[in-house]
Every structure is written in structure tokens, then in C-alpha cells.
Amino acid sequence: MLAFVSMTARAEAVLSCEEVDQMGEALTALGIAMDDENAEIGVGSEEEDALRQVVEGLATIAGAEGDEDLANASLAMAEAWDNRDRDAYTDALAEAVAKLAVISVNECEQ
Hints:
Layout: H1 2-11, H2 17-36, H3 48-65, H4 68-83, H5 86-108
């Protein structure tokens, strides 16, 4: 799942409608898994690179889309990442998912 999210985020800056929906679903699953498993954002963990790439990918997409809300969510994720704060990371992740849902409704369901 993390591989899909990071590959999609790096593959192209502006996502298709299908990719927006897939990314939203993958990020939702990631947030649930992090909550359910009480995952740590630890240095040297298997998930470390993928979680960092999610932050970087969302920032890239936000910049390409010119979307301030998505940019703010990625910044909050980056700050939580730096602080190794799993709860803040998942909260910001939820904000990113909500913004992707808004993008989907506004740009894909017209």
C-alpha cells in the first residue's frame, strides 16, 4: 500500500480522477493501519522512507495543483514526521484525504 501511494505521488504531479480516488483510498487505509497498529514513525523503521515519500509526494501534488489546503496538510504531516508524532501525522493525513475527496467531487464528478 505504501509503495502505491509513494509511486503515484512521484509518478506525476497532477493526478487523474481515478488516481485521486485511488490515492484517497490508499491514504485512508494507511491512516487506519497506523491507528490500528499503533504504529511508530521511527528512524530506521521499514515504513520510514515510504511515510516520508508520502509527505513529499503530497507536497509535489499540492504545488502542481496550486492547492493551499493540500499543501498545508502535507506541511502538517512533515512537521509531525519531524517530531515523530504518529497522532499528528495521522490527523494531517486525514486532512489530506478530505481534501482529495473535495478535489474528486469538484473536478471529477461534474
